[in-house]
Each structure stands twice: as C-alpha cells, then as structure tokens.
Amino acid sequence: FLAVNFNMSVKADVEQKEAPLKKSIFTDYFEPYDCGLSATDVFSKKFGYTYDDLILLPGHIDFSVHDVNLSSRFSKNIALKTPLVSSPMDTVTEHAMAIGMALEGGIGVIHYNLPIEEQAHEVELVKLYENGFITRPRTLSPMDPVSKVDKIKSKYNFSGVPITETGQMGAKLVGIVTNRDIDFLEDRATLIKDVMTPFSEMVTAKDSQVSMDSASTPSAVIMSLSQRLTEYNEILVKCKKSKLPIVDANQKLVALMSRSDLLTNQQYPNANKDSKKRLRCAAAIGTREHDKKRLNALVEKGVDAVVIDSSQGDSIFQQNMIRYAKKQWPSVDVVGGNIVTVRQAFNLIKCGVDGLRVGMGIGSICTTQEVTACGRPQASAVYHVSNYSNRLQVPVIADGGVRNTGHIIKALVLGASSVMMGSMLAGTEESPGQFFYQDGVKLKKYRGMGSLEAMKKGSDERYFTNLKATRSMHDVDTRSHQVAIAQGVSGTVVDKGSLKRYLPYLIGGVRHGFQDLGIQNVGDISAQREKSKNIRFEIRSAAAQKEGSVHSLYSYAKTTGY
Fold first, then answer.
1. Which of 60, 294, 373, 560 yields a CA-CA distance of 20 to 30 A from 322?
2. What DSSP string describes 325-354?
3. Annotated catalytic sites, by residue?
4. Residue 476 has what pLDDT?
C-alpha cells in the first residue's frame, strides 16, 4: 500500500512538472477591461458634443510633469514649442500680445481692424523685438525739460533716454539721461543739458559699417548690426550699464541695446523664433480685393503666416484668396477658416491651405449660432475635422469655446495641433485697451469681432457685410444688406495680470493634465487615440458636470497660482 501511494505521488509530481503553468488566480479572474469609450465610439453616436460634455479617463504615470513635451505645429511649416495661439481680435492681439505669446513658445495673430500700414507696423514691432536692438528709441534734445523724460517713463515704463542734437533718431548723440541723473531733482523744468551724462562719459559701441542716411531702413540696420550681436552683448555685460547706444562713424545714433532684452533671452529659452532668430508672428487678413495689398504689406514686414479671417470659411472668396496667397508668396503659410465640417476642410485643403481654423459660433462673445442657426459643438467639430485633415498633414487650430486649461487639454487630445484663445487672454496687461474699475473690480473691455462696435471698425467684411456700401433703400433686394446683423456682443473681462505670470500658469496646468492622462508627448496623441485606443472618454450627464466643478459650499474663493 505504501509503495503504491509513493508511486502515485511521484507520478503526480512528474505530471505537474510537465503540465503547462496555469495563470495565477489574479490574472484569471481579475484581468482588467477598458473603461469608458474610445474617441471613435463617442463620436459615432451622431450627437454634437462640447468640451464640457466629455471627461478624459486617467492613464498610467511613469514620467515627471517636467518631461511632458508640448511641441506641436501651428501650420505645415511653423512649429510651436507651446500649442497656444492668441486670437486675431481687436481686444486681444496687437504687438505686445504677439511678443508675449512668442516668448513662451506660442504665436500671436494680429487682428486686421487696423489700416494696412498700422497692421504692418505691428508685425514689424514683433519681428524687430528679439534681435536685441531698439532701432526707434524715444529720443530728446538737450534743450528739452526733464519733465519730458518723466512723460516717456510714465507712458512706456522705461528710462534711459538717448539725447541727440536735434532730438531725433539718426542725429548726433550727445548724451543720455537715466534715473540716476534725475531721481533727486526737484525742479522738473530743468533743461536736460544741465543733468545728462555727456557723450564723453558714456559707454557706447561704434559700427562703421552702418550709415544713418535717409535711405536706411530699420530692417537694413538690424541686418547689419546682427553680424556683431555677440560682441555688443559682451560690451553690455562688461560695462554693467542698463543701455548701450550704438553709433556710426559720425557719432550718429544707430540703435540702442537694453540689458533687459539680454535677460529676456535667458528667461525665455522656449521662445518661438524663425531662421533669422526673430520672434514668430502671424496676422489676419480678409477675403476682399484690397486685402491683397494688406497681404503684400505684411509679407514685406516679415510676417510668418497669414490667417484668412472669415466667420464661414468655405466660400469662393476665401478659396480665391488662398490660391492668390500661395502663388504670390509660397514661403508664407496660409491658415484658412473658420470651418466645422470635413467637407469644408476638403474644399480649403484642395486650394493649398497650410492650416485650418476650426470653430463657429462657440466663443463667449459670439452669437453666430443664435443668429444664423449655423455652427457645431466644438468638441465634435475639432475631432471630425482633425481626424480628416491630420491624415493629410494639415494641422488644426481649435478656435473658441476655451474657458480653462481642461478645455485646452481636451482640444489637443481630440486632434487639434494648437488652441486659439480670446477671452482667456483678453484681460491681460498685453491685450489692447485700458483697464477700468466697476464696482471695485478691475476690468478690461472685450468684444466679439461680430459685434456692432467691431464691425464699424472694419470687421464687417468678416461676416460678408459691407457697412460702407451705398445702396438705394428703395431696392428691395438689397435693403436687408443695409442693416447691420451683429453676430457678437461687447462685454468686459476681469484683470488677469501679465502674460509673464499667466502663460506659465496655463502651460503648467496643461502639463499636469497630460501627466494624469499618461501622455508624455503631444505628438503621440493621435496614435494613442486612434490606434491603441489608450485614450478613453466618458460622456457626462448634467449632474456629472455639476459634480466635476466646485459644489456644496456656501461660499468659496477661486485662487490661481500666478
């Protein structure tokens, strides 16, 4: 009996060793399944979804938040280190905003509610900024009173005013006035010649290659000076002065270098620059015949891309403008829009467009959907258009409907290459306009380009309206066109401070969001969403949306980290 049992035991051991290893009970019974829905599942339901309708499910974190790579594209040939774009609205983007966006790795689109010359000048200010040279500094003459220095300091927030014989740029430099010269001066009517630091005591740089004759343009001067930029930077560092005037062989003022600009290069390593080390800048144009002149003027000033600005981008007018721009200036990227459907995208892509602007009637100040019954919920528009255009290597800019960093993340995950913001940036110091107080709250004006106020300034053509047209009111067919049909409103937004603090806050929020999703590289989103389907969504009910925001409190203060 013992022998039999022993043999059976040995046989059982041998069989156990020869049999394949079984899965553990944990793997057998607790194999995880995918929660939520894929993007294909969500958007095949034929419903229109906004950003708030969707929530993204978290992924696995195996990297630091600082390892998140936000590099993306604005258009086919323009890369971004930060996928953020400022909207071409007259209360959002002029040169100060465009400079601030480019310094943080994004790009600004300068609005066209300006005369052609003024818009071109705004572009020029951006393109000249990062070179380190100020070619049009504020200058005064020795016979001007010190009070004029005070006015310059108050208006432009800087001191260090070069003094020339005539008070004009290009004249002979005779001195400079800084805070040290006038800080303790009581009589502000004192003449500058009595307090200025004379030329003999100044540290200057001399460039004999540059001539300040009447034919010299700021761009030509910059090109010449840039060849010795490193040398001038070294002089500025060694002399420990805040300003370094550069003069020609005849002691005429050519340019001014600022120590603060030198520090800017260190503070903004992700600045978005072109091949000539100038900040990137885009500008908006319309679809009318005179906009061809606008386009030519912008290109002459070095604009990197033009955005054809129309509320409904699928028109013969826009198609003709795209073809003209690509034929006339093939090196300048052209972004078309606004569109919300794949058919619209197809019509613009076949014309040669380099990027698509997606969004219609979903901005906080836009009433297009109410007035015209046209548009599309933004999440659906971004997903469907980008899912089509990305296969053709045409980037999508998600324009509108963005109220927080969560919306930025959703737009990028749905396929957008960058996100355009209006109201999110309108209350910053760099946006056009003046702050004012109402009921103790610091505010700034913000208006839609379809508002009556903006349309009177020139944006009426964006909505296929011409308020300046003269038609007979007895003509029944044209009578309705005489009436301005507003597709936007005017309002106010709360002060958000400077872009220098605000943009890092937004970028940090986006980085944290991608870390929670387990996405380390923006460039990997498409594969994770469509191929591996690792990016999962759920559709939120109204109760879920309420639960996902602040609730159940009597009162609260919503603070930010900037």
1. 373
2. HHHH-TTSEEEEEEE-SHHHHHHHHTTT-S
3. 366, 462
4. 47
